[in-house]
Amino acid sequence: MKEAKQSDELMRPVECPRCKQMNAPNNARCELCGYILDRRLAMKIEEEQHMRNEDFVKMLEEAIALLLYP
Questions:
Q1: Terminal CA-to-CA distance of the chain, rounded, Å?
Q2: Is pLDDT larger for residue 2 or for residue 38?
Q3: How would residue 70 be classed by pLDDT, with cut points 50, 70 and 90?
Q4: d(CA 45, CA 36)
Q5: What DSSP line would sit under 2-66, residue for residue?
């Protein structure tokens, strides 16, 4: 009985918290607004953005050092 309930929950449409669009249960993003529905994908994207930001800051620091100390 518990397995059937879990299966029903996995197959239930997912409502986007941003635009309220109903999405297929396996959608990683909202079909209408693109909001990330999958938590693992959201965490991965956030980590990638953090790494890009760190790389950008390092590049700026190096550029400033070259300008100040040619």
A1: 72
A2: 38
A3: confident
A4: 10
A5: HHHHHHHHHHS-EE-TTT--EE-TT-SB-TTT--B--HHHHHHHHHHHHHHHHHHHHHHHHHHHH
